[in-house]
Write the structure tokens for this entry.
Amino acid sequence: MPKAGRITTEQMMLDEGYGNGDPKLRMGQLEDALLRNARYIVGIQMHTGNMTVEQAKQSLSRRAIRRLRLQTSKLSAVLPILRTSSIRWGSSRS
């Protein structure tokens, strides 16, 4: 499926009630859509000669660093809960 189709489909699913309005799903969908759009724009800029490979790397690296910081802050909020949970990840015991 083309990228635009994926973005539209993901948005439509959430608009129609998938995930029961969970704002985390909406934010994740928007974050992923922005990343795909950034890659699309960088690709066009490089193809038309308006951006070098080095500029493209820097642009996408800045976005990746921001995304990593956001994910790290989310993980920091969840780790204490996981540590105290009775769930054992990767356990094959029933």
